[in-house]
Each structure stands twice: as C-alpha cells, then as structure tokens.
Amino acid sequence: MTVExxxxxxxxxxxxxxxxxxxTTQKLIQxxxxxxSALFGVTILYAILQADFLAVVQVVVYIGAIAVLFIFAVMxxxxxxxxxGSQTRSxxxxxxxxxxxxxxxxxxxxxxxxxxNRMAQAIPAGVDTLRxxxxxxxxxxxxxxxxxxxxxxxxxxxxxxxxIASRKGEEK
Amino acid sequence: MSIPxxxxxxxxxxxxxxxxxxxxxRRNAIAILLGIELMLNAVNINLVAFxxxxxxxxxxxQVFAVIVFAVAAAEVAVGLALIISVYRRxxxxxxxxxxxxxx
Amino acid sequence: MPFLNDPINFIxxxxxxxxxxxxxxxxxxxxIIYLIGTTILIVFAMFLDIMLVWxxxxxxxxxxxxxxxxxxxxxxxxxxxxxxxxMVIKEDITPxxxxxxVYNIAPVLAASSVIILWxxxxxxxxxxxxxxxxxxxxxxxxxxxxxxxxIMAGWSSNNKYALLGAFRMVANMISYEIxxxxxxxxxxxxxxxxxxxxxxQAQSGMWFAILSPLAFIIFLISAIAELGRxxxxxxxxxxxxxxxxxxxxxxxxxxWFYAGELLHAFTFGGxxxxxxxxxxxxxxxxxxxxxxxxxxxxxxxxxxxMAKAMFGYWVIMWIKYSMPRIRIDHMLAFNWKFLTPLALVxxxxxxxxxxxxxxxxxxxxxxxxxxxxLVIGFITIEILRAYGRKQRKVEDxxxxxxxxN
Lengths: 172, 103, 405
Known about the structure:
The complex is a heterotrimer of chains A (172), B (103) and C (405).
Chain A: H1 3-24, H2 28-48, H3 52-76, H4 92-112, H5 129-138, H6 144-165
Chain B: H1 5-25, H2 29-54, H3 60-90
Chain C: H1 2-5, H2 7-21, H3 26-63, H4 79-88, H5 100-115, H6 135-156, H7 160-191, H8 196-202, H9 208-211, H10 213-227, H11 252-276, H12 298-320, H13 328-356, H14 362-404
Helix pairs in contact in C: 2-3, 3-11, 5-6, 5-11, 6-7, 7-8, 7-10, 7-13, 10-11, 11-12, 13-14
C-alpha cells in the first residue's frame, strides 16, 4: 500500500460518502453543501491525476459558481425556512435496484478488460500540459471549433437564463 | 504511479450510479439537478483519467473535460432559471406536481 | 553561509537528516517536515494578522487626526492581545433554530480561505510554499471558497437580515470576480506564465505597474470589492444592514471573520506587490548593480516584499478611510457597465501590443504599453464626462419642469 494508494482510497471514500449524502439527506440545503464537499473530492482527484488546471477550474466554476447557484435556488424556492414532507419518492427502491444493476454491469465490464490494469507512465519532462491545453483550445487544426461553439452556448445560456428568470413587468 | 486505471474507472462508475439514484428517486426538482451534476462529474473523472493514462501529450481528454465544464455550467444556469420561473407561477417545485402538459 | 543564502532548504535538509537518523522511513520524514513547514507558515500568517489589528487602528486614527491606542504597552502594541482576550472570554451564543454544524464551520472556512492563499505567496526567491503553475487562478479559487463561507454564515443564522446581507455580499463578490479574472490575464500575457514566481522574475526588467497602470488600478478596485471593504462594504456595515451576515456571531467566531478580513486585505496587498510592483525582486533596479548584490539575500528580499505588501495594504486602508460608501445598485452597475468593458479593452490592448512591440528594446516596449494605457484612460474619462454632461442636461430639464408646475 503506497502513500498514493492510501490518499486515493481516502479521497474516493470521501467523495462517494459526500455524494451518497447528497442523494439521501432530507434537508435540501445540506444536500447542496454535501455537493460542495463531493466536488472538492473530485478536485483532489484531478490534482492526483496531475491535471492541475482542471483542478483549480473545478473549484472556480463548480464550487464557486454552480454550487452557489444551487444554494441560492434552494433558498429562493421555499415558502418557509424548513423543508416540507419527505424528499424521496415512494418507489425509491426501484431506483436503488436500477442503480445497483448499472453499477454491477459497469464494474463487470471494467474488471473484465485487461488493458485497464495499466499503471500511469510518467509525464515526459518537456511536456507542459498547461501550455499544450491553451494551444489546443485556440489552434485551428486542434479544437478551436468546439471552443467557439461552447462560447456561443454560454452566451445563449446567459441570455436565456436572464430572460426566463426575470419578472416580466407583471409584479414590478 | 501505483494506482491502476481500473480504480479510477470504478470510482467514476460508482459516482455515476449514485447520481443516477438521486435523479430517479428525489421529488424536488433541484435535487434532481444535483444528481445530474454528480453524473457529469463522474464523466469528467473518466475523461481525465483516460487522458492521463493513455497519452498525456495529447490534449483531447482535457479539452473534452473543459467543454463538459462549460456545458454543465450552462445547463445548471438555465435549469435553475426554469425552476425559479415555475416556482413563481405554480408555487411548487415538486417534480410530480408540475404536470400541466401531461396527458 | 548556506543558511544565509537558502534558509528553508537548509533547515529542511537538516531536519530530514535528524528524522531519518531516528529511524523513520524517508517518505514519512518528508511528510512530517511538510506538515511542520505548513504549521510554521500558518503561525507566521496568524501572528501577522494580530499585528495588522494594531496597524489598522493606528492608521485609521492618524487619518482621523487622533492618536489611536497608546495606553496598553509601548505605542499600544499589546492592544491586539487585549482584543483577543476580550473576544475569547465572550459568551458563545448559537441562535435558536440555527443549523449548528454549518453555523460553526462558516467562520473557520472564511478564515481558511485566506490562509490557503499564503501557500503561493513568495516571500523571497527561495522562501515560498509551492510554485503552482496555475497560481493566478488559485487566487480566484480561494475567493470562491470565501463567498461560499459567507453564504453558509448568512443562511445558518436563521435571521432575515443575515440572509439579505449574505445574498448581497455574495452577489458583490461574484460580480467583481469577473474584472479580476480578466485583469489577472494581463500579467499572464506580459510574463508568459501563470505562476507567481515566474511573474515576479519577469518583472526584473520593468515593473508591470509601469507597463500597465490601468490594469493595476482595475485590479485594486476589484480586489477591494472582493474583500468587502469600504467603499464597497454596504453589505456588512453596522449602520447599514445591522452588520449583514455576521450579526448573529459573537465572541471568537466573529473574531475569525474579522481577522480573516484583515488578513485577506494584507494578502491582497501582497498580491498587488507581487503582480504589479516586482514582489521580492526589484528595489528600483538597484540590485543589478554589483555593489548591491546583498539585496538578493533571501532575508533582505523578505523585508523588501513585506515593505511592498505593507504599502499595498496602506493604499487599501487609505481608500477605505477617505471615501463614502457606495449603494448596492451603484456597486453592481459600476461593475457591469464600466469595469468589465474597461477590463476587456485593457486585455485586448495588452494582447495586441505585446505581439506588435515584441521586437523593441525594453524602454521602447515600456513606453508603448504605458502610452497605450494613457490613451485608453483619456478616452474613458472623455466618455464619462460626455455621459455626465448628458445626465446633467436631462436633470436640469426635469428640475425646470418641476419648478414650472
């Protein structure tokens, strides 16, 4: 058991535990906060995988923006400060069965494939992943098209969200 | 350098299934979106693990993950705007009660 | 002599030899040394925080033409310790109906989000926590954790004023992150790297405050808005919204919020020093002369860095104690309608000029960048003046109509 494996197992258990609390807790605000800790666990996984830019962007975008949006939405859509009623449907056991079946199928496929047992090779010394990522995102024979399309998508989401959520003059 | 790729894949699969359980079994519309976020994160872990373990000099895995970040952010913004708008009209966000267009 | 030239590595190597001499495994000894180093850095940051309480009170007193604390200890230096004792012995109240766990974690998270910034702040060329190659984005990430802590505090207090204050504060912080991220790209373009040490080393030719003064000013404004300090402190001032999100906090928990804010202000002073004024390196270019080679000593560099950070902090305090508060809708309008477009214009200008002027010698490059910033500033002020003139004409016409009726 090397130190890396111990860190990975602790991080994995932390992430999965937080995710489990997200989907089972009865208080919605606590579900949003457990999501924050699950996202933080994913950040640590990115750092272990040496994708440093993605780890920091995960904190900025997911925890700093998306999780805050969730908390705002939870606070703005309730009639009083406490939750009402049960938060899970009555047929949750079918969902649990379905999830367990999908998990069993995926794990069977993953274990059965011998090519997935490889270890990571060290990143070659001259490769600067941050610079390569930047070049790949704007170079015409790499990924500039998906990059531009994603920016158009973000613009349309921005305009759409502002329009949908604004009070259209009826209650002003 | 001592963690096999399959560990990351099994972790991502478990996270995906927990998110799937959340989407299928929660009543509140916002809680369903929380489950969707967990599934998107599981997919991202998969992409980055494959990037690292196959060829770190090729950037396709990380670029894909960055685009998934952007799409997830856009989806959450529009989804929560829709939920807030529905709450203003019908004063409920329990997904079963928003059935105006069901037959 | 190796201690004087490279203190941290010398001490770490000595400690490593001692620990492996006691029979510990190599990796375990390394982990223990990292933990001890982290603890020493945090203790240093917290002790600095205590001294900042004294600095703040003395400086505000001088701005307001009085003396400040001078009874306890020489020059009032023991005053912060008296403040801490007062806060610790206060009663620790948790409001009824508050979410206990979230209520207790919020001040700790708020203070931690500031302390983690000290991991990337270089005190000298060989005294730093870690040299991340995404250092600038790490600053924004730590700010995001801070806004999360404020929402947690506002929600868990079970108090409508706290919730309103927390909403406004988080709306403020998120809005002002946009010009800050855009402006943080300007040192990245000028230095060709995002790591803080790389940016400091790239300023050995010319400070970035001279190459791009508009970027410095915009970063200063958005940093002050991020901190939630005056003139942007409508969200947490006692006379405005009853202290906003920290109305229900008493004793040491409030102490954590307060200390975290002061340390955050000083840390941003440090970042202004590093990003725009040469950090630990430049002392007006003196260290290039052979006689002043002792200026490259890590201890002298730490003193230089602390002096520049203290100057940045003093500018932030100066702005706080001289300007009136800005209303929340003016704050957000200022950000979205003025600061963000200006930041985008500065970024595009820097990006284009850094490629066009790349072949000139240093003084030509600096002159080109500086004059382009002056042109942009002049055009901005002219646009603002024209806008103000138009507003005044409209108001005069409205006032004349009201006077007629």
